[in-house]
Design goal:
By secondary structure, this protein is mostly helical. Helices cover 72% and strands 0% of the residues.
């Protein structure tokens, strides 16, 4: 038998994730089309979009709480 090849996991930095999501959202194309162009799964785009939304909300909350402490 031939052993199945082992796939290495690709790693994406925060900038790559953010740019991929922005490209998708501003392109007017579906997540499937963008993911195929970038050679990864559309599910990654959806996950990164949710992660980006959470990070922005978290930043906003930290900023708001900081302002409250200054009053």
């Amino acid at each position: 038998k031939n052993p199945t090849p082992v796939k290495t996991r690709r790693k994406f930095d925060e900038t790559s994730k953010r740019e991929s999501v922005q490209n998708w959202l501003h392109s007017g194309k579906s997540a499937d089309v963008i993911a195929q162009e970038l050679e990864f799964s559309a599910s990654l785009l959806y996950a990164w979009k949710g992660l980006n939304r959470w990070q922005n909300l978290s930043w906003w909350r930290r900023r708001s709480l900081g302002r409250l402490g200054q009053r």
